[in-house]
Specification:
Protein name: DUF748 domain-containing protein
Number of strands: 23
Helix content: 25-40%
Structural class: alpha+beta
Shape: elongated
Strand content: 35-45%
Length: 600
């Protein structure tokens, strides 16, 4: 059958200029697809080897090129370090702190331009997708700052003989299986991450970006997202959880939602350690201007601010802790703890908002647990650092706190810590607003075996200068109508019962019911408290305040001695009365016996 549609000359010309080029392109696509794999493999290996200074090698088993769609599929990709090169660099103190090994079964490259690569030496790719890659990362602190290397060339200068530029629009790593091994501590810390997604945008390596400080690893932005992560501390005593984490290198922000640090069950925890049991819950945490690259390389935390909102901080003292009178607990002072941190820390401002702080302590004498609460706490901490250069500029860390003590009285306090003094000097001052004394019973009944039956705090203020040896300052405690009941344990009924006589005696002769008193006389207290070596920070802070409170409520040393003498006298008289009663009962019993025997 004759082809009628080619009768005219113009139809024949169209056939030549359209069909023939298409046919040629299809033939070229088949040929290029067949021979492209070894060419691409050679280019990839060359680029990776040169840009990593021979530390890493890259390989893949096969490649498919769909030239008309600009799509490349690579199979069984593997990026791995050369351990011989790494060990050589380590001996020369040039080894990086982090080693990476990557394996991907299938990698898809979209919108590639192979002719641009082959003819113009420009690697231009629209998108790279890696699904479910396996990534092994090991970290070892080989050096704490950039090492001096002989090759000062940038990445572009190293690849410039093979390529003029590299540009990748987007790199997506979905459902990454990450195994992270940290060798920087005393024990190897291993973290296994799933539900991890990584994306990098606008990767560009050329002559213009080779010194661009706004880019991380030559990318405009690298975003890391982690969901539903759970891990354990090396000791196994704590589990930490993160509901969602997102890090953006472009915004330099690290955002965490649903952060939790949970201790093991009390019985397990206290069997394994002498330390106090801690806990943390936070709805959200944000680090701003976070220098991720320095953290990744050298474990330094540098940020302009840290914000933590919503949640609670809990502490439970170890009830079976062995008393240690040898170790100097000055190490528990915040300024000393900062200096002992193993990481380099520098945060300009820390802000806590809507946090509840709960302290629990078990009293062996009462067999009860006392609770002290600081509710709806907000705090601002300035210059939180142990960085020597930062301390040289400013050696004071300040903390301003607003809280509601036992969810009632407003507490305003300010702490100032000196960071570069072995004597750990600091100061604290503040005031507590009006509240009922009865709100203190969850703490005073189990811990002091004292029940507040009435009274109202008008104002409690303090101003203390301190160091590792001595705490000095002034305490004022204004209140009305204070009355108490003294308690003792009733082990048979698992409760605390009233010491009736002693309570009456205390209210009549010991306790000062009002300050100022009925005549308007105000009792203030000037405190000098010498810290025992085994007293930690918070214990000393509280004991100093308690030393100031006692005189204000009538429990100064003179009153306490007089009270003790009266109680001793009372107990002596009581003992004599009981003795006389016993003797009378004995005589009556003897008389009855004689009468029964008819001898009386």
């Amino acid at each position: 059958m004759k082809l009628n549609f080619l009768k005219h000359r113009w139809q024949k010309n169209v056939f030549k200029f359209v069909l023939i080029p298409v046919t040629v392109i299809l033939i070229l696509a088949v040929v290029v697809n067949r021979y492209w794999s070894p060419i691409l493999a050679a280019k990839v290996k060359d680029v990776v080897l040169n840009s990593s200074d021979s530390l890493y090698t890259a390989d893949f088993s096969d490649a498919e090129l769909h030239i008309l769609r600009g799509k490349i599929i690579l199979y069984n990709i593997r990026l791995k370090p050369d351990t011989a090169v790494y060990n050589k660099k380590k001996r020369l103190h040039l080894a990086p702190n982090t080693l990476v090994e990557l394996s991907v079964k299938r990698l898809v490259i979209n919108h590639a331009h192979p002719f641009s690569l082959y003819f113009h030496k420009k690697l231009n790719i629209g998108q790279i997708i890696l699904n479910e890659p396996r990534l092994n990362v090991s970290y070892q602190l080989n050096h704490t700052k950039d090492t001096v290397v002989k090759d000062h060339r940038t990445a572009w200068q190293r690849i410039s003989k093979s390529l003029k530029s590299i540009h990748i629009g987007n790199i997506l790593l979905n459902d990454v299986n990450l195994n992270y091994e940290d060798y920087s501590g005393n024990k190897v810390a291993i973290s296994k991450l799933k539900e991890l997604n990584l994306s990098a945008n606008d990767l560009l390596i050329d002559s213009a970006t080779q010194t661009d400080k706004s880019r991380l690893l030559y990318c405009k932005d690298i975003i890391t997202e982690l969901n539903n992560y759970t891990g354990q501390t090396p000791s196994g005593l704590y589990t930490y959880k993160i509901k969602h984490l997102k890090l953006s290198t472009f915004t330099s922000k690290l955002n965490i939602e649903g952060l939790a640090l949970q201790a093991a069950k009390a019985s397990t925890f206290f069997d394994k350690t002498q330390k106090d049991r801690l806990g943390l819950l936070a709805d959200s945490v944000q680090l701003s201007n976070f220098d991720y690259l320095n953290y990744h390389k050298y474990r330094t935390i540098s940020a302009s601010s840290l914000k933590m909102s919503g949640g609670k901080i809990t502490a439970f003292t170890n009830p079976v802790k062995t008393k240690d009178t040898v170790t100097n607990q000055v190490k528990t002072f915040p300024n000393m703890m900062l200096g002992r941190l193993k990481l380099d820390l520098r945060i300009d401002t820390v802000k806590l908002r809507r946090m509840d702080v709960i302290y629990n302590e078990f009293n062996n004498k009462s067999q009860k647990t006392g609770t002290v609460e600081f509710d709806n706490t907000s705090a601002t901490i300035l210059n939180l650092t142990n960085n020597p250069s930062a301390i040289a500029k400013n050696n004071i860390t300040t903390a301003t706190i607003v809280s509601y003590f036992m969810n009632r009285g407003r507490l305003d306090a300010q702490f100032k810590f000196t960071l570069n003094d072995d004597n750990a000097p600091f100061s604290y001052k503040g005031s507590l607003g009006p509240m009922d004394f009865t709100r203190l019973n969850p703490a005073t009944m189990p811990l002091a075996m004292v029940k507040m039956t009435s009274g109202k705090v008008k104002k409690f203020s303090f101003d203390i200068d301190a160091n590792s040896k001595v705490f000095k300052g002034k305490v004022d405690f204004l209140y009305n109508d204070l009355k108490v009941v003294l308690l003792k344990p009733d082990t048979a009924n698992d409760r605390l019962k009233r010491k009736t006589i002693i309570s009456i005696f205390a209210n009549l002769f010991v306790i000062k019911h009002n300050n100022p008193d009925d005549k308007g006389k105000l009792t203030s207290s000037y405190v000098i408290f010498k810290r025992p070596k085994d007293f930690g920070f918070w214990k000393t802070v509280w004991k100093t305040l308690l030393t100031g409170i006692k005189p204000c409520i009538g429990l100064d040393e003179k009153s306490q001695k007089a009270t003790k003498d009266r109680i001793d006298e009372h107990n002596k008289n009581k003992a004599e009365r009981l003795k006389n009663k016993a003797e009378r009962q004995k005589r009556r019993a003897e008389k009855k016996k004689l009468m029964d025997e008819g001898k009386f």
